[in-house]
Structure formats: C-alpha cells, structure tokens
C-alpha cells in the first residue's frame, strides 16, 4: 500500500515562536515587523483564536524566516525551534499507516530508529557547549556593560551605541523591559543628593550570566568591523 503525503508549505505563527523563546507575543510581532521593514523576512497576517478562545491577529512565517526571527530575539532557543520544525515536518510527512503491511511496519521502525540514533549523536556532540552556556547563564555574577564590551572586543561607547541601535537599550542606556524580563539585564537604582539637597535618581545597567551568553552569541563575531 502506497503512503500518502501532505503537500503544502508549512508555517509557524508568531504566537508559537513566542512560546518557544518565552517572550510576549506582541514583542515577537514587533520584531517581525522590523525585520520585514528591513527586507529580511516576509510573513502573512491571519486572525486565529488564542489559547483562551479570543480571536487575535498573528503573523505566520516560513521555516527559513523563523530562524531569522529567533536569531534576532533569543539565539539560545534555536534548539527548541529545530525541535518544533521537526515535529511539524514529521506530522506533515507522516505516511498513512497500514498496520496489516509488515513491510511498511519494518520500514517505519527502521526510519525511527535511525532518527533516534542521529538525535542522540547530535545531543552528545553539543553537550559540552550547552553545559558551558548553562554554567554562565546560571551564574550570579553580573558585570557592567562596559566590561562586556571589552570582552567582545568593542569600545565602550561603540557598544552602547550598537545596543541602542539594535533596540536593546533605550536612549538613557537602560534596557527595554522585555530584555529585563528575560533575565538578561539587572538595573541598579541609586540616588545622589546635590548641594541644594535635591535627590537625583541614577541607574546602572548590569549584564547577567544569561545576558552574557546572549550578547556573546549575538555580537561575538561582529567587533572587528565595528571598532
């Protein structure tokens, strides 16, 4: 018995991407809009019901462009995106099951066995790098942005300007709230008193362990052209 395959282009919604990278759906949509304005991705707008049953507008994007979106939002979640696409493609390409056909069952078992072996090999190869990133991400040590700039090979002012240009920092060099929510930055607030005894708040932005991993992956190879 021949298997029947579903033939259509798979897409992923902005809501699914938000779930994968642990980010607000509206933040994902804003990022996608900016990337489309720069000509980097394309997407379609659709009205879909949320988990609560209320309709809302979502953006649906193809496989290649979904990687661009996740790379912009949070590269460390790329593995989750890979797993999600494998799940979608597996569902799409799943052949019709004929339990009465021994040849089909043998073929299916062989395919799944090979896939498991391949995944186990990939996990083993990536384990040291994943463990290193996890150790840094979980550290309690937070460092100033100026020190992070030096680690990446940027000048301090150049790096601050780059982060503002990429909408990670605001004009006052404080991070946007969604980057704080992800645990990438910590803002320390102090107050100094002037000669007239007037209080003035000051803010200092620190990069957490998770933020160090994020900035290293995003800017680790970009300093040479930015000095």
Polypeptide structure, described:
This protein has 227 residues and is α+β, with helices and mostly antiparallel strands. 52% of the residues lie in helices and 15% in strands. The protein folds into 3 domains: 1-94, no CATH class; 97-138; 143-225, no CATH class. It has a 3-stranded antiparallel sheet. It has a 3-stranded antiparallel sheet with strand order 4-6-5. The longest helix is centred in the middle third of the chain and has 36 residues, at 102-137. Helix 1 crosses helix 2 and helix 2 (25-37) crosses helix 3. One of its GO terms (molecular function) is DNA binding. Residues 120-219 form the Antirepressor protein C-terminal domain. This is Phage antirepressor protein.
Quick synopsis:
This protein has helices at 14-21, 25-37, 63-73, 78-92, 102-137, 145-152, 156-165, 177-181, 209-219; strands at 12-13, 44-49, 55-61, 143-144, 185-193, 199-207. By secondary structure, it is α+β, with helices and mostly antiparallel strands.
Name a few traits of the molecule.
3 domains; 3-stranded antiparallel sheet; elongated; 227 residues; alpha+beta; disordered N terminus
Number of domains: 3
Helix content: 40-55%
Output the structural class: alpha+beta
* Spans where pLDDT lies below 50 across 5 or more residues: 1-7
List the helices and strands in order.
EHHEEHHHEHHHEEH
Tally of extended strands?
Answer: 6
What is the CA-atom radius of gyration, in angstroms? 23 Å
- Average pLDDT metric: 78
Strand order in the largest sheet: 1-3-2
**In this structure, how is the largest beta sheet organized?**
3 strands, antiparallel
What does the overall shape look like?
elongated
The number of helical elements comes to: 9
Strand content: 15-25%
Taking the alpha carbons of the first and last residues, their distance comes to 63 Å
